[in-house]
Amino acid sequence: MEGASSKGKKELFWVLNHLTFLEAQARSRKTEAKQQPSGASQLKERVEELKKQRDRLKAEIEVHQSLQKLRASLDKNEDADVSEDSEKSKLLRLMAKQTQLKDVLLAHHLLGGYDVVKTNEDKSLCFSLPTAYQGTMLDTYHVEIDVKRTVRISRHSVPPFIDVERLAKETNMQENIRGFLDALSLHLNAFSARKQQLKLVKDLHKSVEVLESNALCSLLVLLLTTPKERTALLCSLDYSDLTRSLPTRVSVKGEETDLSDSPQWQKNVALLQETPVHEALTAMRETRHII
Q1: Chain segment 18-28, per-residue pLDDT in tens
Q2: How many angstroms separate the CA atoms of 59 and 53, rounded?
Q3: Is 197 domain-assigned?
Q4: In what order do the strands lie in the sheet with 115-119?
Q5: Domain tally, the chain
Q6: Does any domain span residue 200?
Q7: Of 23, 28, 168, 267, which sits with the fewest C-beta atoms within 10 Å of its C-beta?
Q8: Can you tell me the distance from the alpha carbon of 209 to that of 132, in angstroms, rounded to the nearest whole number?
Q9: pTM for this model (two decimals)
């Protein structure tokens, strides 16, 4: 950014020098212009216009330099060497904060919205990946990436059953850190959502027994009970797509038969595939398919 500012200053000074040259060139033609009244009038207007442009550019350079000074003091939490009572200084301070905020927002956008801090004497970047489900903030995970030489993962707090190294290779983290973070965030949010759904099943549906689940929450086996015959049903949910929080396959079995294709249970199976499991169970209980 400092390089860009330096380049901008050079361009402004070049314009000023060029305007000065044009002004001198106009004066050198003054004698000839006197012999041509209409031309003299045009040249005079042109000179005045160039002077105004020069004055405006000088003012812009002064503002730019003041902003750079103020931004440096804001970054260091120091007071700038300007009068606090001056309206000009207040405006400059406001403009400095605005440009500072724009830079922060730009960096935030380039990083995909991930919070990042420098670690290990600026040799590594530590990214925070928060997870949420249905408006509730859940766990936050951290990944530290060494960027000094070869880009690599130095440490992380991601659960071991999510293969971080495999994701890094698949997304070509060497050249696309944001792509890797997006993929990892997708997996983490899906995992947190499945885990939260399992928690809600246990909290909201006391009559439903969780017979089996794994650490990744990619497999869920529930024991359901019908209200009339009090028949026990085995409901299996397979979340083979680990980037999603909904199952890819659902089966419902009675004591001896598979009920998944029966007219009575087809709607429930579709509901379990298209709706979070705790909400699907609530709907099935309201329709008196389970207790």
Answers
A1: 555 556 656 65
A2: 10
A3: no
A4: 115-119, 124-133, 136-146, 152-156
A5: 3
A6: no
A7: 28
A8: 26
A9: 0.62
